[in-house]
Amino acid sequence: MNRASLLTQDSLVESSTTQQKLKWSLVDITIYLHFFIPSYILFKQPFEFYITYTFIILYLPFLVTKYPIPRGIWWILLILLVTGLFNVWAENNTYKNFFKIYLNIAVNLIFYAAVVAYYNYDVETMFRRYLKGAVIVCIYGLIQVIAYKIGALALVDLRNFGFNKWAIMPGGLLGIRINSTYPEPAYFANFIAPAAFVAIYSLFIKKTNLMKRWEAIIILLVYFLSFSTVGYTAIFVSMFLLLLNFGLIRYALLAIPVGVFVFYVLYNNVEDFKDRIDGVKIVFIDEYLLEEKDKEVANQQAFLARQWRVLTKVHGSPLVLYNNYYVAMQNFRSNPLFGTGLGSHEIAFQKYNLNYLISKWYLFNTPDANSMGLRIISELGLLGIIFMVLFIKNNFIHKNQTTNDNVWIISSALLVLIIIQILRQGNYTYAGFIFFAYLYYQNKLNLNLSVNSTNE
Predict the structure, then answer these.
(1) Roughly what angle, to the nearest 10 degrees, separates helices 123-149 and 185-204?
(2) Where along the chain do its domains lie?
(3) CA 77, 424, 50, 350 torsion: positive or negative?
(4) Fewer CB in 10 Å around end: N or C, the chain?
(5) Dihedral sign from CA coordinates of 314, 344, 96, 49
(6) Tell me, what DSSP letter sits at residue 430?
(7) Whole-angstrom distance, CA of residue 56 vs CA of residue 435
(8) Given phi > 0 = left and psi -120 to 50 = alpha, else beta, which region is 282?
């Protein structure tokens, strides 16, 4: 792609900021559905095939023949292929595990690179479309909790409409935790996090044309009613990024007490949040599992008693996370440079897991490590860690780098999602995550092109 065409893309991006009304075609709707309804799968073997994958398969041949794929995508795929095949040869992985993940990532990288080109590299318009979808999802979430309170939950139970990965999630202050169209509240909180960031900015700092005030209120209300630790973590990450943009030292005296107060209120009033925070402290700071691991067990009765002690003391979610953390660290120590290849964490889990401490009840998320950060450490080693850090650092846009507020707001909003994904969502491609990562990159590229064209 030549420089002239890149500058043309930049001018298209600048002109998009004046567009207030989005027009939706059937193609737009079907592309964006993938981000918002990841709770309908057509089959589970050899992998989970979400109904929205059909549109990716349908559009991919047309998009790749019409739009260019950046050279960097091919380099990423080549490096992953070489290191992955090496690990198969070294018996750290299997062909099946590797190619199942590699092909999925390859399709997503190529597809969303072409999608971004299809939208003329106009990050703001693509992000506005996401925000509109997020508002609709949150409205449905509000309907969900109202239906529950009036005893009409069957009317919004998505399992009645074929959503076979969806479930009703009890808990919270109202008896139900909102997950809207997502399988569970954590997934909802993960992918609505960018919208929550914009809502926080719009309501508490400055009005923005990215979102109406009533939309911001609904998003934050429903976000809180998810009673998700992931969601509350995203709020604290959002506060930190706002501090970073407006002056970490200047506003810390105000923001830190506010953050502590919010944490205190959540910790003392939301039982799910309190249990998970306590669990994280017990296993990561107090190293309770390692303490139990080192205790000698004389017989089967003592073995079962130890399991019972662990299960009654620590919430299941921190147990699963720590189990995968322990596996990832052990695997990294054995294979520090390139990890053991895509899809190999499942094999590493079989070698290093602490399952005997937590019994069969908490063996979830073994293939994806319960965290993309842990999975990258385990499967890609230092190579993956360095790429992840540089990707975040080099593509972040600080408020002082642009006169267009929407540019840095979008950058920080997308970064919230990326950070939460690294912390708590291990699937590399779930609900179109690669699209959001690509927007984060393209947003910075557009800014650089704008600066370069102005200097010339």
Answers:
(1) 110
(2) 3-269+396-455
(3) positive
(4) C
(5) positive
(6) G
(7) 12
(8) alpha
